[in-house]
Amino acid sequence: KYGADALRFTLITGNAPGNDMRFYYERVEASRNFANKVWNASRFIMMNMPEEGIPEVEQSALTNADKWILSKANTLVKEVTENIEKYELGVAADKLYNFIWEEFCDWYIEMVKPRLYGEDNNTKEAALYTLKTVLEISLKLLHPYMPFVTEEIYCTLNDNAETIMIEKWPEYKEELNFAGEEESVEIIKTAVRNIRNVRAGMNVPPSRKAQVYIVTENEKVANIFEDGRVFFQTLSYAGEVKIQKDKSGIAEDAVSAVIEHANIYMPFAELVDIDKEIERLKKEEEKLTKELARVEGMLSNEKFVSKAPAAKIEEEKEKQAKYTQMMKQVREQLAHLQK
Length: 339
Hints:
The protein is α+β, with helices and mostly antiparallel strands. 64% of the residues lie in helices and 7% in strands. The chain is built from 13 helices and 4 strands. It has helices spanning 4-12, 25-47, 64-85, 89-117, 124-142, 147-157, 179-201, 219-227, 229-235, 268-271, 274-299, 302-307, 310-337; strands spanning 210-215, 238-244, 255-259, 262-266. It has a 4-stranded mixed β-sheet with strand order 2-1-4-3. A hairpin with a 2-residue loop joins strand 3 (255-259) and strand 4 (262-266). Helix 4 crosses helix 9. The longest helix is centred in the first third of the chain and has 29 residues, at 89-117. The radius of gyration is 27 Å and the shape is globular. The relative contact order is 0.08.
């Protein structure tokens, strides 16, 4: 139903040697989804590869994002090799899963999309080189766990490859250790997460773009966002990114997110359709008014209070306190929007 690779991966992960484990179809399904993720990411990369192939790229041509993922992959090689040599097969598989799914697919591939689609982008070749290099490393490390899907992808990716099984196992290279670039990209990732959390809390759809202001007096942080502007703008759903030293030109009602050495601001009016938000809050106020009337009616009814169990009375009191607090927040928001 799910394929041999998915079953193998399930049986080797999430368990310590010597322990019995319960078998869950849901876990095999999750492993099948992981195999699909690897397959789809590989297809995306191959669709963007030129027919003539990718030449070697000088290290000086790589961006911070390229160096970050190459450095992460390099560390992964070292750790997975050590784990496998110690027979810590499940630990190695978990590290591979997290790296491929989160760092490579969810972050790096999304970061480089703007560079792949712009024909005039002079970093496109470096992006393609990095994508292919990291994919090949990932496939080789994953091969002992998922032999079938990795063999198929690797031999399609490399026409001249006889089989992935006789390819050289990846080795850690000191020259691919880019600690500074790793730190830079992690700062941007933190900023993107914080922006997404703010937007999610306000129910702002990804399609709604807003200006993002990075306010920092720290020159190093300002340079990090300047260098990563292209992918930061894409990942944070920003219409425009402005990097400045103070709050000048930023609306008073701008919502904010905080990272180390910088504040991030987004104009409220660009995130929210104010008329629609007022309408939504008025409906919420109406609903809470009815709920409060119901609860207060019950609690002021002597028959209910004298006959109802203590737990039921306490429950209604908790609801009254909750609805009162919610009403206060709704009215504060309404007052702010109707100014």
